[in-house]
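pasting for ref
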Amino acid sequence: MSDPRIEPESGREPRRINFFRPLGGYMRREVLLIGILLAGWAFFTFGFQLLLVLTQRDPTGEGPFTEATFLGFPFHHWFTGQFLVVWFILLCFLFNLFIDLLADRFRRRK
């Protein structure tokens, strides 16, 4: 019986890719970029919610961010409903931009 890890057409073993142990060069920088962007997403998504909890004055949730308004909306509603969507789109744009730059840099090296 043949080994399922070996491709029968080429006779070579396929490359093994592990996200948590990337190979050097392109893959290592790509994983670093993904980590930085995920940290930025988590900081605004979960950090703001934590900030709301830490700054509330009483158990009903009243605090400086729930009383403030921005563009006619309560600040915490605007932040969650509009800013986080725009932030996600910006992170997607930055990811594509940096991956293209990274791919161009490593394409020139070959």
